[in-house]
Amino acid sequence: MKCFKTKLAKFTDNPLCSYHIKVPLELVEFYKKEKQTRFLVTLNKSLQFHAAINAAGNEYYFIYMNKERSKRLKLREGSPIEVQIEKDTSDYGMPLPQEFAELFDADEEFNELFHALTPGKQRSLFYIVDKIMSLEKRAIKAIVIAEHIKIYRGALDFKILNQAFKEANNR
What we know:
CATH architecture of the largest domain: Beta Barrel
CATH topology of the largest domain: Elongation Factor Tu (Ef-tu), domain 3
């Protein structure tokens, strides 16, 4: 595990992803040598999440910090942060939602097509389900995703998928 202290930074040119945590170059170089791309990040010894280190061109490296995490820790631009970072050894680079685990067991075709997707697409689909609090709605979204992947033989079209979510919510 590696630790460092920094301050919460803010992008000025990207309204969708405004906050981020700058990562020291020596840490980035260490993990590049290790060929490690996914991490378990702990902020201020209290909030843990899965993340990647991203490049801001040739300027610096950073970890995205969403609004929800900033609010939970009561952080604003310039707030000091203590960061612990370690290798993420999970299978997917984030926790496997229970709804997907159950679908993998119940539906061999979905399991096979899902695991043929890139790891980033897999995580995106997990995130869509994981951010929902209602167990019923989580299950519905996971089923809609499974149906979409089977119908389109593993191809993802998020515009069509979002329409399918809306239709499922209106049933």
